[in-house]
Amino acid sequence: MEFATFISYTPAILHGLWITLSSWIIASVGGVLLGLGIALLQRSSSLTVRMAVRAYVDALRCLPLLVMIFIVYAGGPSIGLMLDPLSAGILVLIVHGSAYFAEIFRGGFSAVPKGQIEAAHSLAMTPFAILRRVTLPGALTAAAPSLINMIINVCKETALLSIITVADLTFEVQKMAIETFASFESILTLAIGYWVLIEIFSRLGQRAECHINRHLNMKRSA
Question: Which class does domain 3-221 fall in?
Fold first, then answer.
């Protein structure tokens, strides 16, 4: 493919990159928050709540993401759920990712030493104060590497949204490949685009993890 031809597709590729990036950010933030809420419900004293949450997590982890996308986008209108492709795709990424984020947070909560929680109770701290100052910081520290890996997976999963005509990076590159017959160059462009996004986030995630650990170590030594 000639360089001039490639340049003519640059605006479309950049637009697709923006759609991928925005979908990734929204889905990751939504998935983390929903997953945290689910993980907190898993710690409920009610057996019914715990069983319902467990069923939710197990069901979502058993369903392939692509199947969920088809269920929501193609099957949603039959139950009155009318969503455009981008909204449907982001919703599925949030809900699907929340099950995995919930399991990550559950493991993080389990890693918090019971002695710290017992010490907080002995100081007559409220349950919310214990969560905010003891349980949640410890869980986030323990779960940070897994959270970063899962967020990276969400980025790669956004490529599936092109199947329901979301004009993301994958969709625009596929369109370029079809119109120019330059399959290798197009796929290489797609690979570089995802590599750049994930590499930047990985670097930022590593710095954030080091900052969190350093901050907690300073608090413990104070």
Answer: mainly alpha
